[in-house]
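Let's do one together. I've listed all components of the complex below, 225 residues spread over two lines.
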Amino acid sequence: NAGVTQTPKFRILKIGQSMTLQCAQDMNHNYMYWYRQDPGMGLKLIYYSVGAGITDKGEVPNGYNVSRSTTEDFPLRLELAAPSQTSVYFCASSYGSGNTIYFGEGSWLTVV
Amino acid sequence: GESVGLHLPTLSVQEGDNSIINCAYSNSASDYFIWYKQESGKGPQFIIDIRSNMDKRQGQRVTVLLNKTVKHLSLQIAATQPGDSAVYFCAEIRPWSGNQFYFGTGTSLTVIP
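Okay, and this is what the predicted structure of the assembly comes out as:
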C-alpha cells in the first residue's frame, strides 16, 4: 500500500491564481482530511469528508473547496490564492471517526 | 510541553539517554490521544496511541503515560538515537466536536551523537 499520496510536493502561485492539490489513499479509508500547518502552529483542519459525496468544513475553510467523488480521492481547490494561504498542506485519512489518522508527505505552497 | 507561537519548545539529549516529551490537554472529556513524529520535510508519522481508559501503553522503545487527574500526556523514548531527532506532537480527540482531532504545536527533539 502506498498509503496517502499527495501532489504536487512544491508549488509557487501568484496572488489570484487557482490550483488543486491532489490526494489519494489506497487503504479503503472512509474518512479523509485536509490540514494546513503554519510555522510553530498545530495542524488546522480545513475540510474533511466522511465518505464519497459527503464533505464538511473544518476550522479554517475560507478560501478553499473540496470534493469527494470517490472513496480514494479528495482534492483541495484553492480559488484566488492569497499570501495568507502560504503554508504546508497535509492530506490524511482514517478508517472512521476516532480512529488513527494517517498523513501524506505534505505539499509546500507559496503564494507571492 | 506544548505552546502556541512561532518557537517550538526544544529538547536536546545525548544519544543513548532517555527522552521525555510532554503534552497538556485542556478537557477531561478527551478520550483518545496519539503521539506523532514529524521529520523535517515530511508528514506526521504515527508513533503510539492511548485511550482514556488506560494509564500507560508501551511500544518498541516508546512509552506513553496518561495522567487524567492533571490532564497530562507524556512520551518516553528509551535509548534515544540520532534517527529520533524530529518534532513530536500530541493529538487529542474531542468527542464533543464530532470526534475531530486537535493537534499540539510540538516539541523539537535533537539527539546529540
